[in-house]
Write a structure and sequence with these properties.
Elements: H1 8-14, H2 16-24, E1 28-29, E2 34-35, E3 48-52, H3 54-69, E4 74-78, H4 79-84, E5 93-98, H5 104-115, E6 119-124, H6 130-134, E7 137-140, H7 153-169, H8 175-195, H9 198-205, E8 210-215, H10 219-234, E9 237-242, E10 260-264, H11 269-282, E11 288-292, E12 304-307, H12 313-334
Parallel strand pairs: 3-4, 3-5, 5-6, 6-7, 8-9, 8-10, 10-11, 11-12
Antiparallel strand pairs: 1-2
Helix pairs in contact: 2-7, 2-8, 3-7, 3-10, 7-12, 8-12, 9-12, 10-12
The chain binds fructose -6-phosphate.
The site of fructose -6-phosphate has 15 residues, from helix 3 and helix 10.
Subcellular location: Cytoplasm
Main location: cytoplasm
Domain SIS: 37-175, 201-342
């Protein structure tokens, strides 16, 4: 049941701290600062192709970035496109990211890779799913069953799982720092769920004509996911952009009727450039909502701030996403949408 919540989606949003603890349990050696992937055997990939759809594709974009940061060539592909035109695989490991393990497009991409002799691994939530049975290796995110059609806790758990995979398969000077951030993540997330002002922001912008989301680097997939969630459950127009792309076209859409949600973490060059993009939209009278740890001066240009604590940018992505989940949920609730079963959508898409 919904355990007193109005919808499965909000119940599942609130289950995230527990889901994350499950994902990390017995895999992380905090003393040694290492991740144990023993059940996967020795996978030292020289390259990685991620294949996935929808929300899982956003997780894949994040995962590919983690591998690249560790010096391993990695790229995320939309599964439907990968199967249509399979890129040269060489000896890359092909990683499917699929909550259900049953998505037809993702299965096709994995099968196309296998046909070319590639090793395959699936990051999935469902033990015994088709992808888990067909791939050479399976890594379980252990999020528990997700009933709401819109993916919520499984996305957070995919991000955590992809951190574990990268840490387990590569050497990184940052490993200990990332492990510490992952360990803090369930508690930080709980505080966001308890204290987020996303409902207030949702109330302010329920009547907006469109919603835009921007982010750079690891926060770019968060922007894409924020927009996808908004589309799915509110039926309103929403788009996610790489912050730097805004001025290459989409800026023409920005008006006082289109709130822009900017994810800005840390105070490095990426963050400062995104603040620059925020100034561009503010100059066009767009309302700005900053999802930020407050290390830049973005609050000077923002109408609202959804705060997250200072942590590693990898963990910050999960925290920023939680605010955006709540935002979409509350907009959808105010509009009276069928949140757990949005029109035209199915939980598991078994046709190509
Ligand atoms: C979005 C959503 C879909 C799925 C996509 C892939 O909320 O649920 O975009 O993420 O259909 O599903 P899986 O992960 O089961 O392959």
């Amino acid at each position: 049941g919904k355990s007193g919540y109005d919808h499965f989606m909000i119940k599942e949003i609130h289950e995230q701290p527990r889901a994350l603890r499950q994902c990390l349990r017995e895999r992380v050696d905090e003393m040694a600062g290492t991740v144990d992937l023993d059940d996967l055997g020795d996978l030292s990939p020289t390259g990685v192709h991620f294949v996935a759809c929808g929300t899982s594709y956003h997780a894949a974009l994040y995962g590919a970035q983690l591998f690249r940061e560790a010096g391993i060539p990695a790229q995320a592909f939309l599964a439907s496109e990968y199967a249509t035109s399979v890129p040269p695989i060489g000896d890359a490991l092909v990683v499917g990211v699929t909550q259900s393990g049953e998505t037809a497009d993702t299965l096709s991409a994995l099968r196309a890779a296998q046909k070319r002799g590639a090793r395959t691994l699936v990051v999935t939530n469902v033990v015994g799913s088709t992808a888990a049975r067909e791939c050479d290796h399976a890594f379980y995110i252990r999020a528990g069953p997700e009933i709401g059609v819109a993916a919520s806790k499984t996305f957070s758990s995919q991000l955590a799982a992809l951190n574990l995979l990268t840490l387990g398969m590569t050497r990184s000077d940052e490993a200990r720092e990332v492990i510490n951030a992952l360990r803090e993540l369930p508690g930080d997330l709980q505080r966001i769920l308890d204290e987020s002002r996303a409902e207030e922001v949702a109330e302010t912008y329920t009547g907006a004509g469109a919603y835009f989301f921007i982010g750079r680097g690891l926060q770019f997939p968060v922007a894409l996911e924020g927009a996808l969630k908004m589309k799915e459950i509110t039926y309103k127009h929403a788009e996610g952009f790489a912050a730097g792309e805004l001025k290459h076209g989409p800026l023409a859409l920005v008006t006082s009727e289109t709130p822009v949600f900017a994810v800005i973490i840390g105070d490095d060059e990426k963050a400062r450039k995104t603040v620059g993009n925020v100034k561009e939209v503010e100059a066009r009278d767009a309302p700005v909502v900053a999802i930020t740890d407050g290390q830049t001066d973005v609050h000077r240009y923002a109408d609202h701030v959804l705060e997250i604590p200072e942590t590693h940018e990898r963990a910050a992505a999960v925290l920023a996403n939680a605010h955006l989940q709540l935002l979409s949920y509350h907009v959808a609730a105010k509009l009276g949408r069928n949140i757990d079963k949005p029109r035209n959508l199915a939980k598991s898409v078994t046709v190509e």
